[in-house]
């Protein structure tokens, strides 16, 4: 029965107290809690109970027994969803029809297996008899190792037509032996076929002359001896499977080239937005205009620790120069000397950066401003001096 029909039957036949008691029993067994309020409370509680029964292991749930059978609700079409029931009936009919048409009986399947085994056994027996007969008919050669040797007349014609281009047969290829009488009749054929050396056990047999080994001609390929290599010769072949695969992949041309993509930086072109400033050279004659000079900053160090800003200012004044500001720098680490930052005009920079101006032992250079990393850091370049 589907969940919708089950909820409708229980909601219409059981009271709210019965549903709450059943909910408490189920949820206490799994140590869980669920509270529902408002309209449709009983329906939601029943849905929670069904969900718990579906998702929880049966071993962790209590065993339920129908105690009061007279309280079980009647299951009629008023409580059952007819559409879902009809769908289930149609699916069941389709499954039964599929089983009747597509499946076979167990007896028919067993009979088919027996027929397949009989066919396999008969084919195996016929193939074994055929192999035994081929072995006895060909002597010591198997059927797959048979060799086709041309007759003496064909060899005689080939020797007369192309005497200077006999076939070259490797010495490892086995050939059948002939008697002396057969060797006399097939003497012309010895020009193209190299016979094996005589056996040491039969010294009475005359030794045959061995023809020189030469390369075969192109017009003798159709009448040459056809030799099928044995399995042992194929196994001893130096060519390996990996080499064949590598050669095959080498012949295939893969287009695996990459196209290099370079993101070229655009050159900064002059657009006219930033026009360089030019400086005037005329002498100032008007008293209404005031020019603010550009400033420069000098760093001077290695002074005594007790030297003050007024001492530096007095020293520069005694030398005949004036400065805008003298500032004593705060050292991050404790040192035995003190350092100063001197603010001057830009036209005095050459004087303060000369070795003749400062006493011996004083270190000086242009003051460099650092980046402003903190809000309270005042050691940065003024904005109006850019």
Total number of β-strand segments?
4
Structural class by SSE content: alpha+beta
Order of helices and strands: HHHHHHHHHEHEEHE
Strand neighbour order, sheet with most strands: 2-3-1-4
Task: Please sum up the structure shown.
The protein has 386 residues and is an alpha+beta fold. Helices cover 36% and strands 7% of the residues.
What key attributes describe this structure?
386 residues; alpha+beta; Alpha-Beta Plaits; four-stranded antiparallel β-sheet; 4 strands
Structure description:
The chain has 386 residues and is an alpha+beta fold. Among the domains are: 3-83, no CATH class; 106-160; 295-385, 2-Layer Sandwich (Alpha-Beta Plaits), CATH 3.30.70. Helix content is 36%, strand content 7%. It is built from 11 helices and 4 strands. The protein has helices at 3-13, 16-29, 41-55, 82-102, 106-137, 152-161, 180-185, 231-235, 241-251, 309-318, 349-352; strands spanning 295-304, 325-328, 337-345, 363-366. The chain has a 4-stranded antiparallel sheet, covered by helices on one side. Helix 1 packs across helix 3 and helix 2 runs parallel beside helix 3 (41-55). It is elongated and about 125 Å long. The model is unreliable at 140-149, 163-177, 179-195, 202-211 and 218-226 (pLDDT under 50).
